[in-house]
């Protein structure tokens, strides 16, 4: 076992007490299910899944522009009933080449009789085998009951936790991947804008990214040469219309999210920005900032080498009586070079 890291500036000697460990009891929380007519609901979902399966055949017959690569996947959107969650962990396969995989979860809020209600919209990548697997699950839901812990049959359908709360299953649109709503509206279909596109990392994501670039170049999109790599995603900036992207990205199976690119703060911190301009931006931000602090405000503990709490953006939130130091001789001012 490695030697624990020594942090002499963190003292907790006076803030702990020994207690005997109590093993937690098993707590079974029932998954809430909306009441259903089993036959009507199951057969309605089967029809929707069958329509999606037919889309694979339609796509195979569709003529694509030269150099556009087709992938064996479609994007599907699951809608929950209002007031009921979906079984999110059952909408994804944990394997290198999944037949279906959950991509985004959106929570929509409604007001009904003065009460807030929620509904979920979930985008899922599905291969043809994934659609077939869901058809099997719905068929089982229709025809078989689950068993209790003792192996006895119950009156609850199998896969009820997965199937019962699904209101509808339909093909997703490009807007299904837009994660900036409702703060930012989805761009108009023919307006050319910059997009921040998030792609899932896969075992062959280098090949897939090359195919994405090839498809986008064919439709005339402008691409940033750099990508930002995370453990599970790759992020790329691209410029195109929503209509262009719908004809290209929707043919690939590793799109995860679409966002509006955010501006970096070099319009304040850039070397060409002088002190007068910085002060103008500071006053603009101050005018748009409402300060409301009371006994219920969130408290944040910041461990630092000192803080200049006289800065105009800080002083309203960090009064002198909230500055502390382990050794009074250290002082609480910012001791870092140049502040």
Give an overview in words.
24% of the residues lie in helices and 22% in strands. The protein is built from seven helices and ten strands. It has helices spanning 38-61, 128-143, 160-163, 205-218, 242-246, 266-269, 275-287, and strands spanning 74-80, 100-112, 115-126, 145-147, 153-157, 166-171, 193-200, 222-229, 233-240, 255-259. The strands form three sheets. A four-stranded antiparallel beta sheet has the order 2-3-1-6. A four-stranded antiparallel beta sheet has the order 8-9-7-10. The protein has a two-stranded antiparallel ribbon with strand order 4-5. The chain is extended. The mean pLDDT is 85.
As a percent range, the share of strand residues is 15-25%
The number of distinct helices, counting runs of at least 4 residues, comes to 7
**Major sheet: order of its strands?**
2-3-1-6
Report the span from N to C terminus.
40 Å
Whole-number mean pLDDT:
85
Give helix % range: 10-25%
Report the major sheet: 4 strands, antiparallel
Please tell me what the overall shape is. extended
> How would you classify the helix and strand content by structural class?
alpha+beta
- Number of separate strands: 10
Rg value: 27 Å
Order of helices and strands: HEEEHEEHEEHEEHEHH
Unreliable segments of 5+ consecutive residues: none
């Amino acid at each position: 076992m490695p030697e624990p890291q020594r942090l002499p500036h963190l003292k907790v000697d006076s803030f702990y007490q020994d207690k005997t460990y109590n093993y937690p009891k098993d707590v079974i929380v029932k998954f809430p299910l909306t009441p259903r007519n089993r036959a009507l609901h199951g057969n309605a979902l089967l029809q929707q899944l069958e329509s999606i399966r037919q889309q694979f055949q339609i796509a195979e017959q569709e003529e694509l522009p030269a150099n556009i690569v087709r992938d064996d996947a479609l994007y599907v959107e699951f809608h929950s009933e209002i007031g009921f969650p979906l079984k999110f962990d059952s909408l994804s396969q944990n394997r290198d080449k999944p037949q279906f995989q959950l991509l985004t979860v959106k929570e929509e809020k409604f007001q009904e009789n003065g009460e807030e209600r929620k509904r979920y919209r979930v985008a899922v990548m599905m291969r043809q085998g994934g659609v077939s697997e869901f058809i099997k699950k719905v068929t089982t839901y229709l025809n078989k009951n689950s068993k209790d812990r003792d192996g006895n049959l119950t009156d609850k359908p199998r896969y009820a936790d997965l199937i019962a709360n699904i209101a509808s299953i339909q093909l997703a649109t490009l807007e299904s991947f837009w994660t900036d709503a409702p703060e930012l509206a989805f761009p108009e279909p023919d307006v050319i804008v910059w997009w921040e596109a998030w792609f899932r990392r896969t075992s062959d994501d280098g090949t897939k990214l090359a195919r994405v670039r090839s498809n986008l170049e064919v439709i005339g999109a402008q691409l940033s040469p750099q990508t930002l790599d995370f453990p599970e995603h790759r992020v790329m900036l691209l410029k195109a219309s929503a209509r262009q992207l719908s004809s290209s990205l929707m043919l690939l199976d590793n799109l995860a999210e679409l966002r509006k690119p955010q501006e970096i703060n070099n319009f304040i911190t850039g070397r060409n920005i002088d002190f007068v301009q910085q002060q103008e931006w500071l006053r603009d931000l101050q005018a748009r900032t409402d300060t409301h602090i009371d006994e219920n405000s969130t408290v944040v503990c910041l461990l630092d080498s000192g803080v200049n709490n006289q800065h105009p953006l800080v002083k309203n939130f960090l009064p002198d009586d909230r500055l502390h130091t382990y050794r009074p001789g250290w002082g609480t001012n910012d001791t870092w070079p140049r502040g």
